[in-house]
Write a structure and sequence with these properties.
Layout lengths: L6 E5 L3 H12 L3 E6 L12 H17 L15 E5 H4 L8 E4 L5 H14 L5 E4 L6 H4 L5 H5 L1 E6 L8 E6 L5 H13 L4 E4 L8 H18 L4 H7 L12 H7 L1 H14 L13 H8 L12 E5 L5 E7 L4 E4 L6 H8 L3 H10 L3 H19 L8 H12 L5 H8 L1 H10 L6 H8 L6 E4 L2 E6 L4 E4 L9 H8 E5 L2 E7 L2 E6 L8 H17 L2 E4 L12 H9 L3 H20 L4 E3 L3 E4 L1 H7 L3 E5 L2 E4 L13 H12 L4 H15 L7 H6 L8 E3 L5 H14 L10 E4 L5 H13 L5 H15 L7 E4 H16 L2 H11 L8
Parallel strand pairs: 1-2, 1-4, 2-3, 4-5, 5-6, 7-8, 17-18, 18-19, 19-21, 20-22, 21-23
Antiparallel strand pairs: 6-7, 9-10, 10-11, 12-13, 13-14, 15-16, 16-17, 24-25
Amino acid sequence: MDRIIRNVAVLGAGIMGTRLACHFANAGLNVLLLGNSRRNPLPSGQEENEAGYMATKGRLEETVSADPSPLFHRKLISRIQTGNIDQDLPRISGCDWVLEVVIEDPGIKKSVFEKVDRYRSPGTLVSTNTSCISVNTLCEGRSEDFKRHFFGAHFFNPPRYLPLLEIIPAEKTDPGIIGFISRYGDITLGKNTIVCKDTPGFIANRIGIFMISRIMKIMDNLKMGIDEVDALTGPAAGRSKSATFRTMDMVGLDTIIRSAENLYNSLPNDNYHESYKLPGVFYELQERNMLGNKTGMGFYTKRWDSKGRSGIYTLDLKNFEYKPARKTRYPSFLSARATDNSAKKLETLYQGKDKAGEFFRQTMLNLFEFASWQVPEVYEEIYKIDEAIRSGFGWEYGPFETWDILGVERVVSDLNSAGMKPADWVTKMAGGGLRNFYSIEKTKKKYFEIPSASYAPIPGKDGIIILDHTRSTNLVWGNSGSSLIDLGDGVLNIEFHSKLNSMGREAVEGINKGIEIAGNDFRGVVIGNQGRSFTAGVNLGILFVLAIEQEYEEINSFIRIFQDTILKVRYSRIPVIVAPHGLCLGGGCEMALHADHVQAAAETYMGLVEARVGLIPGGGGTKEMTRRASNGGGKGSIETNVRRQILENIITAKVSGSAIDAFELKYLKNGDSVTMNQSRVIADGKSAVMRLAESDYYPPDPGIQIMVPGNSGLPAMQETINALKTGDLITAYDAKIAGKIAQIMCGGDMAGPGAVSEQYLLDLEREAFLSLCGERKTLARIDAILRGKKPLRN
């Protein structure tokens, strides 16, 4: 369908509306955000449209000021215009898509749509963000053109971070619109789009409300607290840090109550009808206005002690008093948390013989039974359920994927033993000789299709590369810390797979081996993985042991090898693309700085953070940022200011808040690219390799010279260091480290300005790095990080 979206209108300036406006601005669109006219009497002399404008603008400013911000970068707020619905609705005539995000009240929504129908231009898309109201009922009485272009577009909160977008067609929606918006949501908005039936709660919320109800019942039976439940439904179980109760605080308890009541009232004959009824504690909290983050109190709250130190306190559901958060010590939980393998986490908890294991088994068996009975009447395909739960709630595996990991027959037996019963189609599948809900065939994942009783390709996955699937058949070489995978079309992928994808000897060996093999047999290389983050940097454990044992020659050798490896990334005779996502810190950032091209996920957090552990960027990072200051800052005071800003960024371990922010910090350069949908980063990196290879790629000149100011540049750098120390932004030891960085950036002991080679600066880097490895305070900082403590400010 030939359709371009440049301008969107968001109607409703609450928490969700303002965050949604920000995410559309992140995607490069012009946004018109319209809120309610007013909630309070107007100040004397203030006109109604001015008051509405200011109220909406204030709510937007409040949202943008949150930490983390819904914007990739503060400057993007310029893409958002504000106003109020009553006076400014005619302005939607110039918009390509109008999104309604007002309160979950069908009467109010219908009233808004009546006005939208009056002012929208023919062909304009209109959607509702309802999470629980029938989409078909909301477009009753509207024009035929409105109905053809109307659909549900249910974004999950916060929309910047949760990738699920449920698309719900109404009866008269043009099918071409649904196809277009599904693709648009995927590519432009970075969403995992799922087309749903217009059933109560759609997919994710229906399962979510059911699970909240069951979890509350099980935790009550087992006499467990909020802290324990969140520990067992968070990262230890392969799920998001917000777990269960923190997620509810983020969403808002009033929103959850409305969703649950809608399900309960809409499904009187459902077998699970009573499971949609929330326990009384929710209504007690609503009465007390303890709705979560929006009111500052919910299941959690933040408090300050007499010394001004903040801490998180947890609600005691028995007396509604807050108590300091408590740690969970169940053996099965500790074992699950200790492993990096998500599948093993699930197996460990499921087999647990303690209360944690009992809680996990009961909740999962309830989920398995419920999910199976929703197919195919409510949800047509199992992959949609798994996709919705992964994308909407931050799980690594959905219900049926988890069931596969634990074993289909085993879980069926456990269900029967617990007095539960899976849906008939599950029993027939297992009885027909098929033992899994999914299969991998020729690097493609297929799902069990009930009508055909066979495996079918998951639609909409064209152009997405899943390394777990490709590795099984296309592994070229590997060791314990890295794998080389043939992506096809002459492109080789170098993948890390260690804890936090830290870069130790095995990863360095993999990079060197990959570039060597690719130079002979491939057109180019993508360095990327699909772990939770790209890399947290060089393996500190190895460095710490060597430093404690004063093996300085070993450290020198390791750093030299790492520097040489980074230079191979830059000067390889075939193009090398780095494709980061999530954390891209330390040595990972240094590697990206030297790539021909960086294809970064929008949610990439880059930084040279070595100062946190008492070191300097020693793998080419200090050298490369010196080069970028010299080449990109102009001359005189402009260049000096750039150099000083880079010094400040390094010594304060400044990490970008997004890939867009990484451009501002000079970690990304002109020509690097951003992918909104993280699942497409590897595929986009492969495309970038092919473009470079087809353009008669030639590596950069290794004889590059870098201009440095010499000792004459040190006074300005020292001013920056002194100002940071005076402002208590760095410690005295940080100032010492900063002095070494400044010395390198100015060219060592050169008396005046001049040109130096890359190797000259790399040698200065390595010398400074080695000297810091012998410092007691550096060892103390590394030790604190390795023990899982906060960065030490000594």
